[in-house]
Amino acid sequence: MDLFSNIEQEEESRKNKLGHADIEYVKSVGILTQAKGFMESYDYTLNPYSGCSFGCNYCYAAFFARSTEQKDNWGKWVKVKDNALQLLIKWRKKPLIDKTIYISSVTDPYQPIEKELELTRSILNELVNYHKPRLVIQTRSPLITRDIDLLTKFDVVQVNMTVTTDSEDVRKAFEPICPSNKSRLKAIQEVTASGIQTCITMTPLLPLQNPNEFVKELLNTGVKKFIVQPFHPEKGKFVASTRELAIEQMKKMNWNESKYNEAVEVFRKELPWLGEGKQGFAPI
Ligand code: SF4
């Protein structure tokens, strides 16, 4: 059997469905996007996938989907940027050593399909061997621990783990497909213990059971850096995106601005470093 038959066979055996999500393999025109708006303090954002099978019901990224159908079905489709690595290899001529890159702004680089495809892993491997940029990786998946071996090779890297609440009921109401809060805290503890700079992003902060107990859980991970941002029910620039389902859930849970402010007061007092909103996301 020749090499091309092998590749064709491999491509045919790839999954077109994973759990509830349709998986499509696409050729992208580029892999690095000039960062702007909320992410403007970075040079580039890098999204190995478009769409996200975690499908959080407040996800702002849904509003960047190309069609109404994609927006309406957010969480049920993923497009794999099949040529992401090849596109990145072209950047070897212009190394990204002094650049700041944020992975990822409109998808989760460690969503379930990544476990099989190792696309994000291949990108990290390329970046560490040919570029060594300043890197921030944002995820809510414990799968990040798989890549600790690569992450420790970067000179400047930060892993951001999103943890939005201390309540599994709240997590299930807003992020039913996502890994549990405990598994995320355990994962970021492991990343931190490996010596990598870490941060827990409570973005958006969802209703809490007990802010004081939550702070203890956060500190137990060993993480020293935290970012908080409110859930925005109103129409606005960045937040125009908050989806109806999430707004309904929030109303039911009786979480409001004053409860958010009370929780943030506890964070300001107890956490060693707290970034708030856009400024908190600035590169390391
Ligand atoms: S994990 Fe992130 S990108 Fe994916 S649906 Fe949730 S908020 Fe959106």
TrEMBL record:
The keyword Iron applies. GO terms for molecular function: catalytic activity; iron-sulfur cluster binding; metal ion binding. Gene3D superfamilies: 3.80.30.30. Keywords: Iron, Iron-sulfur, Metal-binding. Pfam families: Radical_SAM (PF04055). It comes from the Bacteria. InterPro entries: Elp3/MiaA/NifB-like_rSAM, MJ0683-like, rSAM, rSAM_sf. The keyword Phosphoprotein does not apply. Residues 38-276 form the Radical SAM core domain. This is Radical SAM protein. It comes from Flavobacterium flavipigmentatum.
